[in-house]
Design brief:
With 109 residues, this protein is an all-alpha fold. 72% of the residues lie in helices and 0% in strands. The termini are far apart.
């Protein structure tokens, strides 16, 4: 998946509809939260086991995929409008997480 190409497509999609004035980091982040809530709503009353099994349920697979895609698309737009290099940001964050959350030490007796 070419994230830069997706961002270009999303910019063109918004421009064709004259949505640019509304596509600010603030508005896009609020829209992202709405889409994340719609994703959470699918799983809201499931047990942990049911949520794991949802991947094999044909009635849930497409709605889950749609909401995951919406979240990703809004996230890409936020990064684009905020000038975030996603690849660099992800690499930096993985390094930070590894330092912050090292694997547990195995104690040998």
């Amino acid at each position: 998946m070419d994230l830069n190409a997706l961002q270009v497509r999303l910019r063109a999609f918004a421009a064709e509809r004259h949505w640019q004035p509304f596509h600010t980091p603030k508005n896009l982040s609020m829209a992202l939260m709405v889409e994340a809530a719609e994703l959470a709503e699918i799983f809201q009353w499931m047990t942990p086991e049911q949520s794991l099994a949802a991947r094999d349920d044909p009635a849930l697979k497409e709605p889950i995929a749609d909401e995951v895609a919406d979240v990703l698309l809004y996230l890409l737009q936020i990064a684009d409008h905020a000038g975030v290099d996603l690849q660099a940001a992800v690499e930096r964050k993985l390094v930070k997480n590894a330092a912050k959350y090292p694997p547990p030490q195995v104690l040998h007796e």
